[in-house]
Amino acid sequence: MKIFIDSANIKEIKEAVSLGVVDGVTTNPTLVAKESRPAKQLLEEICALLPGPVSAEVISLESSGMVAEARELSRIAKNIVVKVPLIKEGLKAAAILAKENIKTNVTLCFSANQALLAAKAGADYVSPFIGRLDDISQEGMALIRDIRQIFLNYKFKTQIIVASIRNPVHVLEAAKIGADIATIPFSVIEQLIKHPLTDIGVQRFIEDYKKIPK
Ligand code: E4P
Prior knowledge:
Layout: E1 2-6, H1 10-18, E2 24-26, H2 29-33, H3 39-49, E3 54-57, H4 63-74, E4 80-85, H5 88-99, E5 104-109, H6 112-121, E6 125-128, H7 130-135, H8 140-154, E7 159-162, H9 168-177, E8 181-184, H10 186-193, H11 196-211
The structure holds erythose-4-phosphate.
Erythose-4-phosphate binds at residues 6, 26, 28, 107, 127, 129, 131-132, 163-164, 183.
């Protein structure tokens, strides 16, 4: 499973990339707004940090506006992937952009039928938001299982990005299901590394090393 970092923070992205486990980045307008910097400049900087895909979202609600924004965003760097929302106009935009070889990530996906349509429209990636489903008492991970099954049935090439991840259990379940990608907040990546027995073990080895006669 590929790991993307769900962040627009340069420090977090740099730190995550240095771990050698990060294959890409996803941003959204909420994450970009937190950085209080012009979006274009910020995206340029993020794209230079790693060769993998960096998702940047459009905000137009009409397909024509989305396509215009997508063309603009794709000029920022080779590794830009354009995020379009899973609404009618977003599907139209994804279909147009597929023909122009501009990569798309169809986002805000909350049902398997929506994911099926994204794949049919030619999206490179689809992002089901599991945490937001859990928040309203629906099992987010069930959606990933359904989409995986549908994509396998018809051999769709669209990759599933498990999004809106809130904890390490989400990551574990996504990997067990066989999702292509999990996009993970930095805090959760840090949680994945941690194990109390590892820390106790490291400490004990340091203490015991001191007892070895020099
Ligand atoms: C994915 O691409 C989104 O940026 C993100 O995962 C949304 O997560 P949230 O529900 O925590 O905002």
